[in-house]
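Ticket opened by: R.M.
Priority: normal
Category: complex prediction / small molecule

The reporter submitted a protein together with magnesium ion and asked that the result be attached to this ticket for the collaborator who will pick it up next week. Submitted input follows.
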Amino acid sequence: MLWGNNAQGKSNILEGIYFFARGRSFRGARERELIRFGEKHAELSLTFQKEGAVYPVTLEADLPQTGRKILRRGGARLSGVRELIGAFRAVLFCPLHLSLVGGGPALRRNFLDIALSQLYPGYLDSLSRYNRILVQRNALIKSGGSTDQAVWEVYGRQLAHLGADIAARRHTYMKMLETHVREIFEGMTDGREAPRLTYQSSAIPEGDEPDEAKIRKEGEARLFSSLTGSIEREMRYGATLYGTHKDDIAIRLNDKEARTYASQGQQRSLALAMKLAEGELAKAIGGEYPVFLLDDVLSELDGQRRAFILQALTDRQIIVTSCEPAYFGADTVHMLHVQEGKIIGSEKNA
Ligand SMILES: Nc1ncnc2c1ncn2[C@@H]1O[C@H](COP(=O)(O)OP(=O)(O)OP(=O)(O)O)[C@@H](O)[C@H]1O
Ligand SMILES: [Mg+2]
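Result attached by the on-call engineer:
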């Protein structure tokens, strides 16, 4: 546990650790902003042990004020973030994630993107290419478009192909996640309510129960026809209106839309269950539990949910931040007191 007063650097430490899981800041800070005020560059280093492995792994990052970051694994230079991601896996849970159910769709897409990217390098590839092409297509729309139908078709084909891949993987992941979310949520609420989570995509017709192969084939065709059939509308709107960048996760509780009907507490419980389920899937697919990083969430949860999350994470590695050092009774907790950007005290069994 990292504990200390506000603005002492607790979240900064988590941000540094999480950097190696995502290759970027979780606060959306740009790389330059990770460098200490007045300095020209930042160095980060993380050493961790894989389950069953003999030697620990060390990851390093050099972030210069200008120019590209340098990433290393075991001293050897990596070509980029793609090579970094997946080596060290973490599940982050911060107050923003408490709005996972009630907030906007971008939060839920982001949840899927982060989880899938850490597990499948191919997903990250498709996603980055998709986003790059989307930016180009949007720029074309904003600059007045093109009268050449072939241009739109090239964009449509590329986005439809990558979008169908993204949708297929997200769909499969959601299916697996739902099973875990239900189980965890039932444990949290004594089985009174059963949530349903489904991936909603313009690649998948409503009410359809598709499989991955079907989404890849039929979803691609659907996306292509949406992308090439609505250009006038998109020109009026000023951006690409169809595709996986608009998708969402539909979350229902007792057959009602959770975003609208579930109580604040139920929404938080669901969000919590989704985060814990993300960890379970990382174990099931990736082979070992990720490190759980809990930034400030314990203080945001009531006693019952706090107890549940700590119980659910027994025997996992978790790093939590808090203003008070008093949330744990367990004797395996390592307490680190953070003050003015430094760890000033360290004790076990606090
Ligand atoms: N690039 C930077 N260089 C030096 N200090 C910075 C930089 N960016 C942010 N800070 C400082 O770090 C502090 C915030 O640290 P952090 O968010 O880790 O605090 P915290 O301990 O998590 O606090 P809280 O309990 O309020 O969440 C702020 O005082 C901020 O001014
Ligand atoms: Mg903080």
